[in-house]
Design brief:
The chain has 152 residues and is α+β, with helices and mostly antiparallel strands. The protein has five helices and six strands; from the N terminus they run βααβββαβααβ. Helix 1 runs antiparallel to helix 2. The chain is globular, with a radius of gyration of 15 Å.
Length: 152
């Protein structure tokens, strides 16, 4: 992360990230839930200031990223992709640091995977999640374009 191999931006290419997530094939998966109607809906959420993306760039090309929805102090991660090894990890790392500086309470990754667990994700019970969510939703949502650029 310290060798400036990647550049990372927030909300600079939401459409590029969601389309790459929809079109990147993954092992053991057939098709995608990210259908054209879903892409349109998330782009509308992005334009409304609720959906956000982290883009990872390598030599001027989109190398990886993730997107999700922000409400209060919670970020709901929807999907991530990489075309270059470790690009999605860099996106998540950067987003976690940015959200921490904004006093977010958690990222809801929705699914427990070995990959996310290896990156530090923790599973919580439904009752604990509902308490965390209730607390996070008491805060205003940071709407609009999230801006901050960092080289990693």
């Amino acid at each position: 992360m310290n060798n400036q191999y990647f550049s990372i931006t927030l909300d600079n290419d939401f459409a590029g990230v969601i389309n790459a997530c929809a079109n990147t094939r993954r092992k053991e998966e057939f098709g995608t839930w990210i259908l054209p109607e879903m892409i349109e809906a998330y782009i509308r959420l992005h334009k409304s200031g609720y959906a956000h993306s982290a883009e990872v760039w390598r030599q001027g090309a989109l190398a990886g990223g993730l997107y999700g929805v922000s409400l209060g102090r919670a970020f709901f991660g929807e999907s991530m992709f990489h075309l270059v090894t470790d690009a999605s990890k860099a996106a998540l790392h950067y987003l976690c640091n940015w959200l921490q500086k904004q006093n977010f309470d958690f990222i809801d990754a929705q699914n427990e995977t070995r990959h996310l667990l290896s990156l530090g994700a923790k599973t919580v019970s439904r009752s604990a999640y509902l308490l965390l969510l209730q607390k996070a939703l008491h805060y205003p949502t940071i709407k609009g374009k999230w801006t901050n650029i960092q080289s990693l």
